[in-house]
Amino acid sequence: MDGLLNDLPARTEGADSAPVPPLPAQGSGEHFRYRSLTDAAVRYLPVFREGVLLGCLWAAETDDAAGFVAVGADAVQVERFWTERLVRCGREGMRPLQALHRWVGAAEDPVGGAVPAEARERIAVTLDALRGLPWLR
Q1: Maximum distance among all alpha carbons in the chain?
Q2: In angstroms, what is the C-alpha Rg of the chain?
Q3: Residue 32's pLDDT is what?
Q4: Along the chain (137 residues), what's the average pLDDT of each consecutive run of 10 residues?
Q5: Closest CA to 130 of 76, 82, 33, 61
Q6: Rounded to whole angstroms, what are the CA distances from 51 to 18, 36, 48, 58, 115?
Q7: In the chain, domain spans
Q8: Phi, then psi, of 59 in degrees rounded to 5
Q9: Reduced to 3 DSSP states, what percent helix, strand and coil does the chain have, rounded to the nearest 5?
């Protein structure tokens, strides 16, 4: 199964809508950051630049962590680019799962690339499983 779970609903059908807990963050104001580690399953979307995979944007199913797994020669720059975008989302009050979808279909950036409009959200059972996918090594 390669650590992937596909086509799972984002939330349990019929679940009570409980109040949304405060946004989990590290720091505040200009120094805001979502948590960057989780033991929960993660939802992820691919990011491409000129048709080349740059990595995956991810958010924990528990809605308390988000980040970017980068690959390739520009991994450091690309990861920094997406980390800055996630920081911006947090400052705007977005939860991690909202931030995951914020740039789907947006114009391609020359550094950070883009999440294609037709990208299909996938689920990895853990962040380590996502990092271990063959096409992300």
Answers
A1: 45
A2: 15
A3: 67
A4: 39 36 48 85 97 96 95 95 94 94 96 97 96 87
A5: 61
A6: 40, 27, 6, 19, 11
A7: 23-136
A8: -145, 140
A9: 25, 25, 50
